[in-house]
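Thread: quick sanity check before group meeting

JM: Hey all, I'm pulling together slides for Thursday and realized we never actually wrote out the predicted structure for the chain we discussed last week. Dropping the sequence here so it's in one place. If anyone has concerns about the input, flag it before I start.
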Amino acid sequence: MKLFVLCAALVVLAVPARAFDLNPLSAIKGAVEAAVEDRSTSDIAKDTSIKAEIVTKVLDQMGSDVISITADVYEQTVMLTGIVEKKEQKAQAEALTRTVGGVRKIYNEILIKSDLEREKGTVEGFVDDTVIETKINAQFLDAAAVNTTNFRWHSLEGHVFLFGRALSQGELDKAVSIVRGIKGVRRVTSRVAVRPKAN
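JM (edit): ok, ran it. Output follows.
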């Protein structure tokens, strides 16, 4: 099974946390990454460095009532996802990320707990985000036209966020269609760039 990099979730619970909650689908690919992704080794190194600095700043400066924040970095573009107690924390996470050198663009998709709770009141059924993410992984691997190594994804209460790069609009459309067809998915937000492979 292909592994994925730069998707480690930071979890800061009611007590100070200094550890990563690693999604099993998001383990570091290591040396094989450069061979399977459409990125250079130097580009991957830049993303890894940016990721590490974001992690440090979030852990050191965000409050203890943050539920979870995840930072994905792809070609120096950052997507922030997770759940926080207050909208001010969402803004703070973005502000801290903007101080990191080399960041080109930020997508702040962090959700506010109170907004999710209001939505839950109108939606029936329990959503298991781990199951959704596992199904996305399996179905992307089975889909010949989707290059999974260029995609990142997170599910939060059935809200799926896609990130990374598609080599064509058709590839992106297929990926979005796959995710929308998975049981429990309530909404799909794509922050995937479309760019063909360089010759």
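AS: nice. The longest strand covers residues 77-84. The two ends are 27 Å apart (CA to CA).
JM: adding both to the slides.
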